[in-house]
Amino acid sequence: MTGDDEEPQEIKAEAQQRLETSTAAEAAAKQALEQAEATVDGLTRQLERAQEQLRRAQSAADLPARLAAQENVLRLEGALSVFREPEEPALDETEAKAIKVLAAAADLLEKDSKTAAEALFKEVNEETAELATLFGVPSLKSVSIDRGARLKIFPLGSKQEWFKDQTAGARLRLRIAVAIALLRVGRANGVSTHPGLLLIDSPKSEEMQSADAHKLFKELATVAAESDLQVVITTADFDLARAALPADSIRQAEPGASLW
Q1: In a shared domain, residues 132 and 236
Q2: Alpha-carbon distance 81 to 78, whole Å?
Q3: How far apart are CA 245 and CA 221, in angstroms?
Q4: Residue 104 domain flag
Q5: Domain check: are 237 and 171 in the same one?
Q6: Mean pLDDT across the stretch 93-98?
Q7: Is residue 236 part of a domain?
Q8: Neighbours of 259 (CB within 10 A)
Q9: pLDDT at res. 82
Q10: Rounded to whole angstroms, how far apart are CA atoms 246 and 197?
Q11: How many CA atoms lie within 13 A of 13 on its CB side?
Q12: I want to staple 206 with a disulfide (CB 3.0 to 4.6 A). Which of 76, 83, 93, 169 is the partner?
C-alpha cells in the first residue's frame, strides 16, 4: 500500500462506518416504533372495554360502577393523548444532500426521457402512416402510438378511430407498418431495435391486392437488408414472390411436395 492509497481507504472506512451507524439507528427506530404501536393498541383496547363498561352502568344503582368506569375512560384517553411516537432519526447532512441531488437527477432524467420519447414517437407515427398508405390503407391522414402501445387512426375527413375498429386487411398493413417504422426509427436514433423476427402468413388472404402485396414484399426485403431483421413470409402466389423478392431468399416447394 502506498501513501496515495491511504486516503481512499480512509474514505471507504468512514463511509462504511456511517452506513453501519445509520443501519443501527434505523433498526433501533423501527423497534421503538413497533413497541409504541403495540402500546397504543393495548391502550386502545383497554379504552374500548372501559367505554363498554360505562355504557352498561346507566341506572342509579350502578352509579359507583359508572363513576369508576368513567374515571377509567378519562384516564385511558389522557394516556393516549399524551402518548408520542418516537421521532425518526435525523438524516446525516451528507446523506440528506445526496438524497436531494439524486431526487433532482431523477426528475431531470424523467423530463429528458419524456422529451426524447415524444420526438421518437413523432418519427414512428410519421413513418407508420407513410408505410401504411403505401401498403394500401385507404384515406389515412395520420396515426398516433402512445406509451401504452395503443394505436389511434386519423382518417381523412373523419373522426379518430382505433386500431381494433379497422378491417382485418387494414390491421395487417398497420401491424407491418408499425414493425418496420420501429426498426427504422430505432436504427436511425441508435436505440434498441424491435423486433428481430417477423412472421407473416399469407398476407393476400387478408383482402390485399397483388399491387399492395408487391409493395409490402419489396419494403420488407429492403428493411431486412438494412438491418438484422429476419422476415419469413408464406404465400401461395409464387409469381408475386419471384417478382418482389431476391431469388436467393425464396424457398419454393415442387408441386405436390413438402417444402422441407
Answers
A1: yes
A2: 5
A3: 6
A4: no
A5: yes
A6: 75
A7: yes
A8: 8
A9: 63
A10: 18
A11: 6
A12: 169
Inform me whether the pLDDT recorded for 54 exceeds 70: no
Half-sphere exposure at residue 86, Cβ-oriented, CA atoms within 13 angstroms: 18
Closest CA to 244 of 260, 220, 208: 220
The single-letter code of the amino acid at 42 is G
CA distance 135 to 123: 18
Total number of domains in the chain: 2
Q: Which three cell numbers stand for residue 98?
A: 445526496
In sequence order, the 6+-apart residues with CB closer than 8 A to the CB of 43 are 76, 79, 80, 83
Distance between CA atoms of 50 and 147, rounded to whole angstroms? 57
Contact 223, 229 (CB under 8 A): yes
Distance CA 169, CA 175 (A): 10
> Does 4 have pLDDT greater than 60?
no
- Cell 451528507 locates to 94
Residue in the block written with cell 379504552: 47
**Could you tell me the three cell numbers for 178?**
408499425
Domain that holds residue 80: 9-87
- Three-class SS string for the chain? CCHHHHHHHHHHHHHHHHHHHHHHHHHHHHHHHHHHHHHHHHHHHHHHHHHHHHHHCCCHHHHHHHHHHHHHHHHHHHHHHHCCCCCCCCCCHHHHHHHHHHHHHHHHHHHHHHHHHHHHHHHHHHHHHHHHHHCCCCCEEEEEECCCCCEEEEECCCCCEEHHHCCHHHHHHHHHHHHHHHHHHHHHHCCCCCCCEEEEECHHHCCCCHHHHHHHHHHHHHHHHHCCCEEEEECCCHHHHHHHCCHHHCCCCCCCCCCC
**Domain of residue 221, CATH code:** 3.40.50.300
